[in-house]
Amino acid sequence: MSNSVLVVWTVVPDTAFGRIFIAATAVGLVRLHAEAKVGDLDRAAEELSHYHNVRLMPLDSRANRGCKEDEEAPEGLDAACVVLEMTAARLRSFSSNLEAFTPAQSATTTEDDLACVPVDFAFLAQGRGATLLRLAVWRALREVPRGSVWDYSKVAKRVSRPSAVRAVASAIAANPVPLVVPCHRVVGRDGTMRGFSFAGGVAVKRRLLRMETGRMFVK
Asked: 3-class DSSP state for residue 7?
């Protein structure tokens, strides 16, 4: 497939969130999806196939370079594999920290495991439902540091759309790479959770914020 974009994927098993599907281009991560029910991970891969001119390849294809002996390796294969392998390692570390954390502890002081994982926003811009506002929101969410919590209106102001709080909330719910783009660090102005479109839902969001901030979020 000439001029196609190579997307390499794998599944990270046995995390605090269950099995997680991750996919990346040579530029960065493009999908992080936790399995909630049977078939979820297959659907995550199928969704990526709808992008224009994409070539999907499982990570284990790297062993044979994803091609026949007389063919060159696909362009971007090694770089995409590096992104995936780094993401998987960082996810395992993040998961281990969460599993070891207890409510009796104060906030953990470990580094933000996933902050250095690159995201390919240019690729995400091609996706169904992708808009300039959504992309701006996802980029802004990467600015929320570990230990901090923003409300939806602050995100709206950050993307210069102060009156579009509902649209901003919709963009946050559609985040294709949660944890890496830390949408769990956004709550209502009064501290309410409002929701979390990832494995475990609001209960996991509360635990993540307790671990990162030391604060209790009970609403």
From this structure: strand
